[in-house]
Amino acid sequence: MPIQHKYGLFPRIIGKGNNARRLMELLLRMRSEAAADETAATSRRGMMPSSSIESLIIIDREVDMATPLLTQLTYEGLIDEMFGIKNNQAEIDTSIIGQAPGQQPKAQSGAPQQQGLKRKIQLDSTDKLYDQLRDANFAIVGPLLNKMARRLAGEYESRHGAKSTSELRDFVNKLPGYQAEQQSLKTHTNLTEEALKYTQTDTFNRILEVQQNLVSGTDPSSQHDTIEELIARDLPLITILRLLCLESTVSGGLRPKDLDSFKRQILHAYGYQHLLTLHNLEKMGLLVARTAANPFYIPVGGGGASESKITNYNALRKSLRLIVDEVNEQDPNDIAYVYSGYAPLSVRLVQTIIQKQELLTLTRGPSTDTPSSAPSAATGWQGFEDVLKNVRGETFNKIQKGDEAAVKARHMLMGSGKEKTVVVMFLGGITRTEIAALRFVAKG
Length: 444
Known about the structure:
4-stranded mixed sheet; globular; alpha/beta
């Protein structure tokens, strides 16, 4: 509501998911309550739709639980996977990135270097280098760092070519910026080297292979030997559970005998206290058996999924082209680059609203009747109604209107050529890789 109080009503509220609909209804109720509490003049002014915001898109996290279970493959996402990012800050061991600038480790003669010291680093757009790296697929981060290092070295060496005092003064003025960039380059180079130690391991590649096979529609049972091997290797329990929950989510559950077998192996390997863990995952619908009595059941072949119950990835894989075989990670042309071939369903749903023409061309070919000149979110879900029946939860498209006379007067005074903003909200959390995909959509 504070956004609506400041900028005006969201002219259109579009969303998918049961909780998203509840939020929409709550916003409408709060609007009615606020209007009742205001004076007539204030109410009329507050009832006007925003002139700078085109629509609000609400995506319920429940409609796409598979995406957060996948390993994030952007630079920022991988840092979050390995170290965790909170409030745009990460705590990294000083043995990886060194001491903060201006600090020297307290060295004592004959004493070993102290281990386990943490250093907080800021990870946001104020760091120009990080701003260029954060949304890139990790596979190209090394070459990007190399390119940036050469550029900095060239600019720093340009001081030798300065002939006049004014040129020297300009260089001295830029020196603090060069030093900050060099420190940032050192930090991100060290982080990249540490991440490479992890991503080049056989274990990481096996996990990634299982994930890619599951989301691409490969027979889930063919991945069970690998998962059992990872359990035998004593990998962290959360890694195993993410793989099993991913299979359950995209396949409508595991075969009962397979689920019982995995539960038994987990309890033997990690302890019987995790009976509660498995029970809670089943209660949430993340790790369930594939039976006809299961409300999350998807029939073999992917057909017959009922709206509002489950998300049918088998049907959506083709209709929304969630799998892209050829991905250009250096110069991407689709959001699938963030997961090296998998397009997050949650962001694809946003594209069905604000990049309708591009997505229709991608999924159905260039011959489509949808006019390319249509406003970005003015038509809501139009063109994808049948596709949305395979996505869990309710679908809604609510238009908020204000006082007609006031709206017409403002339209005459301000015109309609101003570029408007589309606000996207994920209800229930979002991964940093999905944020990278949304930034890519915004650039398009």
